[in-house]
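Researcher: We're teaching a course module on how sequence relates to structure. For the next exercise, students receive a sequence and then see the predicted structure as tokens, so they can try to spot secondary structure elements on their own. Here is the exercise chain.
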Amino acid sequence: MKINPYQPDQTGMAYSVGTTLDRFIKLKQSDFPFASGELSQLLRDIALAAKIVNRETNRAGLANIGGAFGQTNVQGEEQQKLDVIANIRFMRALSKGGEVCAIVSEEEDAVVDLQNNSGKYVVAIDPLDGSSNIDVNISIGTIFSIYRRKTPIGSPIQQEDIMQPGSEQVAAGYVLYGSSTMLVYTTGFGVNGFTYETSLGEFFLSHPQIQAPKSGSIYSINEGLEKDWQDGIKSYVDQCKENRFAARYIGSLVADFHRNLLKGGIYLYPATKKNPSGKLRLLYEANALAFIAEQAGAKASDGQERILDIVPESLHQRTPLLIGSTELVEDAMNYIQLAKEQETV
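Model: And here is the predicted structure for the students to work with:
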């Protein structure tokens, strides 16, 4: 008899206990007849690196690995020690598995060509999102996107393998290191969440088939930048306040997105005067979360168009991001459009 991992047990109180990430991946492997097991192994490699980063994060206050590393990355942002550690851990896991031909990382200036021309996949990753929050014990995360290469297997990687729109993703996910550690991912067949059980060293299915509420009453935005917002964003946030929405902003993208995905809400990081193209990175932040959002019935936009339709032009390209419950994102887009129309009158 085939086991349905989403079927409650006979008590009706709990889903099948013991559905590990590894077992779940094997059950879903038939969704990808073209993959021959490589994609499944790649997801396992990412999960392994996440376990190691989880361990390092939990030791940060005791092992002197918190705080700044003393260098800046290509974004001009000060690297934290755990940024560097997480990048090393994921690089090792992805390079040793043999499934990946190239990696795009927030912490690397250029594409990391693994010289593995037989690899079928390209991975874009933010190894540690929100790392400046480590020292104050606030949730942080990892974000990843997986693409199939476009050029023939056996040939060197090319620009077209890297610069793919988010709609070409075959899988995407994030790891949230918080009060519990969760891995949430999609392969285009819904969104599933797994919670890490430290005593067993396994991720267990805890949030099957996540569906985001169509609306909500939470808005997440850095209100310290209000004077730099465009008029449409100001009007929308004012409307949120009029409707008595709750303001919730952690400052870790993964944590803010995860809360709104489960509870209903909207996360906004709009263009500002300082960052007219937005601040979040398209390839390894916005695309992954947009894919997850849409698979969970939510929406993601740059304020004008669907995030997943944007064709990247540069490796560390930035974008505005409005993401969350469908009705809220559409309302925000309407306010932006209305403001633009008024400007032309």
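Model: If you want an answer key for the exercise: The chain is about 30% helix and 25% strand. The first helix runs from residue 21 to 28.
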